[in-house]
Design brief:
single chain, mainly alpha, 81% helix
Amino acid sequence: MRRNLKMSKAVIRFLIFVTMLWIGSTLAYYFSSMWFITTWYASIFVVSLYFALKTGEKLSDLFRLNGKWILKSILFLPLIYALMAVVSFIFPSIGATTQIQKVDITTAIVITFLGPISEEMAFRGYTQGIARRKLNVNSAILITALFFSFFHPFEVFPQIFVMSMVLSVVREISGSLVPPMIIHCLNNTVALVVSFLI
């Protein structure tokens, strides 16, 4: 009985999480208010962190800082770009690039910092943690990568999936969210700069 109650709470938490992701991303797409997007990302981070801790993750493990992994995180970015280039050659995405005309400080912070950190907490912190408890590591990585990719534009699904796979693998081998957060922040920074310059 107690186990069933615990399972029900876990299912309810996950449904709340998915609902927040879906409604928030839909509203953000249609309204494009940077203040809404900022609030939504902050909410996703807090809710995901709370739910991850409720499922048994430890704060010290989630944000463990290892000096070697900071450098390794930076070195993973060229690997991701090489893999994405191969995938883009096989699955070319038409009209998927977006050019950002005007970037204020809030937009830059959301794109390069708040968004990636919140997404890593949500997907690699909470979702991958749940999947890892129920499945083997490879299945947890695959499911997390697919789930992450579904919340991004379909035109770039193969590229996002490859990047997400690498981020999920890094999360597993490093044992921390910090390396995938660094990689994700760097990737978004590069994407923002490239988009602004094109």
